[in-house]
Write a structure and sequence with these properties.
Layout: E1 13-27, E2 32-33, E3 37-39, E4 42-51, E5 54-59, E6 62-68, E7 71-79, E8 93-96, E9 99-101, E10 109-119, E11 123-138, E12 157-163, E13 166-168, E14 171-174, E15 176-180, H1 186-197, H2 209-216
């Protein structure tokens, strides 16, 4: 047995940044996700779990048990721009070339993005976390256009999204899967990323939790 050591070199880990966004739109006609496309201009992605609230049950004049409500997962996306393919996820449809209309049905989508995992010895080069969000549906959001002034700023778009969990082998359904590059074997992680991002062998493709699990085992 060894004693606990605090503040060892390399143990000061932090999270920062967001980049490498990939959008996968769900195609109702094929009941599958389409090929992934790059989402440039991501500003923030806020993961918001909710639920899992405790309800106390009393009997025999004592606390008998505690029930926990189902957990839900929401995500808020902020970006300076978005891919054309996201229009149908935002309730926009093309009426004619260059002409769109809003308030249409919203398509489901999945989103993949990377965040930096840093530490006190390697800084931002320590590693990265690959996040995959499944079954997202964007809620209507406001767009505030302001006059150009002597303090110019780009408009940032924002979408609050609810999710529907997908099956996870041996576990409860989930809407978020995260890969840690410091723990997943490098060659196996590359195999997963080559599929999520696409490469010379094929286009970007969304992988379900069962497929990712099979590739990294």
């Amino acid at each position: 047995m060894t004693a606990i050591t605090w503040d060892a070199a390399g143990s000061h880990v932090y999270h920062t940044g967001v980049s490498k966004g990939v959008l996968y739109v769900f195609d109702n006609s094929t009941n599958a996700y389409k090929e992934g496309v790059a989402w440039n201009g991501l500003k923030t992605v806020t993961e918001s779990p909710s639920g899992a609230e405790a309800t106390s049950i009393y009997a025999d004049n004592i606390k008998y048990l505690t029930l926990t409500s189902a957990e839900e997962f929401k995500v808020t996306i902020e970006a300076y721009t978005y891919p054309d393919e996201f229009a149908e996820c935002d309730g926009t449809a093309q009426l004619a070339k260059g002409v769109t209309v809003g308030q249409q049905n919203r398509s489901r989508f999945a989103l993949c993005y990377s965040t930096i995992l840093g530490n006190d010895t390697k800084g931002d080069q320590y590693g990265e976390l690959i996040h995959v969000v499944y079954g997202a549906v964007a809620s209507p959001s406001e767009k505030a256009y302001a006059t150009v002034s002597d303090s110019p700023d780009a408009i940032a778009f924002s979408w609050e999204c609810n999710t529907t969990p997908v099956s996870v082998p041996g576990m409860k359904p989930a809407s978020l899967l995260t890969l840690d590059s410091t723990k997943v074997e490098a060659t196996k992680l590359k195999t997963v990323l080559d599929k999520l991002y696409g490469n010379a062998s094929g286009p970007a493709k969304l992988l379900m939790p069962s497929e990712i699990a099979a590739l990294v085992r």
